[in-house]
Amino acid sequence: NAGVTQTPKFQVLKTGQSMTLQCAQDMNHEYMSWYRQDPGMGLRLIHYSVGAGITDQGEVPNGYNVSRSTTEDFPLRLLSAAPSQTSVYFCASSYAGTGYEQYFGPGTRLTVT
Amino acid sequence: GENVEQHPSTLSVQEGDSAVIKCTYSDSASNYFPWYKQELGKRPQLIIDIRSNVGEKKDQRIAVTLNKTAKHFSLHITETQPEDSAVYFCAAGTSNFGNEKLTFGTGTRLTIIP
Question: In 3D, which of B46, B20, B51 has the Cα closest to residue B33?
């Protein structure tokens, strides 16, 4: 099993550009989520999904969109990048929700200039 | 929503000594409390977790205690080793359908001094 994979590993965007961060898991997990990690602020939940076709907002959803058309994939879209979105983004998945171990991807380091 | 506070933000201990990291949470509905370890440049990984129906859980040199009344939980690492140096995150969440959010603390950077 590859576990949770994320692409790209690094990305530089200009303000106003859009892009999609990819996340995939091969463990047949129902729950998937996106976090951003900023120095001194821990991991903050952006969006999550409890299954295909179902998504919901987390703590910091503004400026981001998600969709979940399959169990395996959970892409995160930045609509119009801003310098405040410079961060490390982690995708995670778990068997059935937040009461189970979260398996994190390797992360994407995004810089917006 | 849930608010998780974690202390201290940095901690240095001599190799072989014990380390304790403390967290408090605000939502009495939270019933699952995991701890994650993140080494430099790596992804967070679960090291131990505890559910609200248990007061203490131990796994070799690592233990977690939970006080539901006071809404706080702690990570204890005994006989610390250099490989314990990392950032540790606590989290609180519910495993109830319809409220599937996990809230993390801000992290503790633990340094083990050889």
Answer: B51
> pLDDT of B16-60, one tens digit each?
999 999 999 999 989 999 999 999 999 999 999 999 888 999 999
CB atoms within 10 A of CB A64: 19
Cα dist. A54→A50, A94, B43, B61 in Å?
6, 15, 26, 40
A26/B contact by beta carbon, under 8 A: no
Query: Which ranges constitute the DSSP H helices of chain B?
Result: none
Q: Nearest CA to CA, how far is A84 from chain B (Å)? A: 18
Locus of tokens 């205690």 = B65
Could you report the per-residue pLDDT of B68-94, keeping only the tens digit for each? 999 999 999 999 999 999 999 999 998
Residue B97 has pLDDT above 70, yes or no: no
Coil, strand, or helix at residue A2? coil
Q: Which of B33, B100, B103, B104 best probes binding to A when mutated, by most A CB atoms within 10 angstroms?
A: B100
Pairing of strands A108-112, B62-67: unpaired
Q: Where are the beta strands (DSSP E) in B1-114?
A: 4-7, 10-14, 19-25, 32-38, 45-51, 56-59, 62-67, 72-77, 86-93, 102-104, 108-113
Chain A CB contacts of B105 below 8 Å: 42
What's the one-letter identity of residue A78? Answer: L
